[in-house]
Amino acid sequence: MIKQFLMNLLLSFIWVALTGSMYYTNFVFGFMIGFGILWIMNRNDTDRRYFNKVPRIISFIFYFLYEMIKANVQVAYDVMTPKYFMRPGIVKYPLNAKTEMEINLLSTMISLTPGTLILDISEDKKTMYIHVMYLQDPEKFVRDTKSGLERRLLEAIR
Description:
3-stranded antiparallel sheet; globular
């Protein structure tokens, strides 16, 4: 999988060198072309993990950016209006993430989202305690985070 990623990067750099345009958009376009070339060359290969993982990672990045922008707009609206809409609360969040890296990435992604903060992780690493600034329904928050952020993150890194 690392070999395919490095080959994809090499094809991206070759594309940038051939076009003579050193912009990140040109590099991304070269990466997509390289991905397509590698996919065509390896379509009969049994190891297809790289071709499944790259779209999941890209999907996760866009999902996280959307969630971050949505939370930023909510916090900015609350700051700009005279009435406060905050309903702070602490949620006990059961984890599906198992390894230290998975738990660390999940807690970082949750903390990066405005309005949320990780307070603690239990000793057995099965529960995370999250402070949520706009908590309407704790069960809905857990359900949405599990089906959205945690599921997509684990699909991207496993």
